[in-house]
Prior knowledge:
This protein has about 375 residues and is of the alpha+beta class. The protein is about 40% helix and about 20% strand.
Amino acid sequence: MYIQDISKTSKFWVVRSGDGGMFYDHFIHNSIIAIGHIDSMDYDNNTLKSSDSVETLVYKYKNTLLEKKETLASASNKAGQVNRFITDMAIGDVVITLDAKRIIVGVIKSETYKKNDSVTLKNVDGSTSELMLKFTLRRDVDWGKTQMRNKLSLAINNSFRANQTVFSANEHWKELNHWLSVAFISDGEAYISSRIEQKDGINNLDIAQYSIIINKIEAIAETLAYNDTDEFSDDDLLALFEENYKELRKNRSFTVTTQQVFLSPGDLWAKTSGDRLKSLLVISTFLLMFNIEPSFANENDKQFIDSNRDSISLLLEKVKSDESFTEVQQGLDLHVPHQKISKNTEREASTNNGSDVEPDDFEGM
């Protein structure tokens, strides 16, 4: 699983693919997003390159709607959506589209452009579908894989409640990043996600024991991040870990906060604070506990984890044995979700300097 750093200013957008998602497949198979709001307006690609000409275009569009007797609120809403699509969205931003049953995530790969050619789809028999997408205002997108919406948690589905064609989902930064990236670092903090699939009711002991395991993962990370253990014997390292864990527990100085987004089945999200090396250790230890091999954007990160691999394995096996991890995993039907944003769809740095919606704070529950 790919471990990456995600800025808290990273942007999320939802662009609906027509009424009821009727153009969902057109978006996906042609690697685009598109809106048809200003199809009747007189503009070209040169217009889209100047902020002044874009401002004039959006102003004229709003006035056209008002002349058609639309309310000021409706005209302002639609004009705002056009402005967001052209001005606020940027290369590297994450975009989501959906229909009644499906949802897909991608990364924006181009600036806005106008294209008059209709977008078609090929049927299974090779014929062309009669349904054509004629929206002219477009951006190119690198799409991931389609997911089924009925598999999403309520917290994620709540991110898509707005009725607009184009809207920001930045206020759901935490939920969306947990869903997309599963395990990631942001501002030096480690974020990890688990999926509980148990449908027959959850044993409270399993939840309590899993919480202890996550605390002990933080203790492993602190032991290796803040001590020179290169010359330690296995017994010395185990003793140091036990001492660190006891101190963290005695002083109530664990930084782990968790949020349970489920009755059952559902998700459990956790966050730990500290420096970046500690966060790398937290995430890598967490993934290795589930026999998932971490991969890294930074070669130095890989070398750091590789150099600590034997120590991580030693301490992790101790924790799994002491806390009966196999039984807890079976009792909760526990696993790590699939990553939706991977190395192949890595986000590029956004150059958009528009106003940001600050992500909500992560608070334990």
